[in-house]
Design brief:
The complex is a heterodimer.
Chain A lengths: L18 E9 L1 E2 L2 E2 L4 E6 L2 E6 L6 H8 L7 E6 L3 E5 L10 H11 L6 H7 L15 H14 L4 E5 L7 H16 L3 E5 L4 H4 L4 E6 L2 E4 L2
Parallel strand pairs in A: 5-9, 5-10, 7-8, 8-9
Antiparallel strand pairs in A: 1-4, 1-6, 2-3, 10-11
Helix pairs in contact in A: 2-3, 2-4, 3-4, 4-5
Chain B lengths: L25 H19 L1 H21 L3 H33 L3 H7 L2 H30 L7 H25 L8 H8 L1 H10 L7 H25 L3
Helix pairs in contact in B: 1-5, 2-3, 2-5, 3-5, 3-6, 3-7, 3-8, 5-6, 6-7, 6-8, 6-9, 8-9
Classes of the chains: A alpha/beta, B mainly alpha.
Amino acid sequence: MTGGSYDPVPEPSRASSLPVLELAGVTRNYGGRPVWTPVDLHLAAATTTVVTGPNGSGKSTLLRLAAGLLRPSTGVRRCAGRALYVRGGSGPRSAQTVSDAVAAVAGLAGCRARTPAALALVGMHGWESRRVGSLSAGERVRIALAVAWATEPAVLCLDEPTAVLDERGVSDLVGVLRVMREAGCATLVATHQPERLLSGADMHLRFEARHLVAAG
Amino acid sequence: MSRPDTRPPLPACSPALLTTRRAVSVRTQVLAVLRREWAVERAGREVTVTTIPFVAAFVVLAGLAFGPAPLTLARTSGGTIWLAVLVAGVVIARSVAAAEVAEDSWDVLRALTSPGALFAGKLLATWAALVVTWAVTSVAVALLFDAPPPVTALWAGLFGTLALAAVATVFGVLVATGVRRRGLLSALLLPAGLPALLAGTQLSTPAVPAGPWAVMMAVYAAVLLTASWAVFPALLEE
């Protein structure tokens, strides 16, 4: 495995062999210089991939590019379905109540009816009438996860979801990632604390000296 | 002091929670964006509490400055309405994208909606806010200046606010998504809105021939709407 190229599915027997995201030789330039060497990455449906690396190594750039928010400077991105990028607790507006905020975003994907189940999934049942702005950073991450589940993305890119989560929050995150995988979602998670997430991950990639390499 | 953890345990994975993904029509997305805009405004009232007091103060101060001669008040009523709407448009334009970027919700919007649907939803929400601002200002001017606007003011209110909504949508995104451009909103929006100010003032002033100004306003709105629709997708690219 060289030059940032990866086999799409570690376990061929899984029902996850359907590729949903393909990055072929992609780079992204900042100030005329590529952030990393060309990356080839294939993500199959129903997989979880953890990306680690030092600050400034390009994890967020890779996730934003995978989600289609950034256009590659070189190379090709192909995605079969909806891709969602979530940074921390981003997504809902702080003035709204938890229920309204999740429903408003889920409505954009035609999934408004999934709001109650999404809130139950992240352990926020009973918090519907609280204002998003009054929640802690960790609770906002839970809301963002509810949004992610409710909108049924084919590819979910989670940027640093663990940074503000307590022990139980991380456990719940692992549970949500498991549910997302069972729903067929390919999840790409960038984190500095991969320990708990790696147990349920299919791949662990790491940025080292501007190269994306398989870790472990 | 930490709060007690009242959350129920995470539910077990249930096949009932798993549904097939569905395609969403552009019309549904536009309505969802619009519905979300109104829900956010209803919850926070950010635009309401900034624009309505502003136009109220503006109209009162203008009345004090131009009055009490009835003829002078009648002549300045149209200009007062449209200057208030144009400046309020700068505040309203901020809600297009700057507030979304500040709250980290812009990326989710971009990911879940097509550029056309996002433009249309934001445009309609901005247009609605400007129409309400125009209506409130017109009523306030009619009452305080004792100068009822002519019927042609409705034409100006319809097309002038549409044109301003188009430029506010584009400039709102352009300015909000560029770190070095954040202070440029008023510098861009006010000059671009001058034709609306000019034609709107003429159409809202009694005894002014309306024909040429009405045509100018409609053409101006059509051009801005078309140009804004064309450039909007490019503004979403990073």
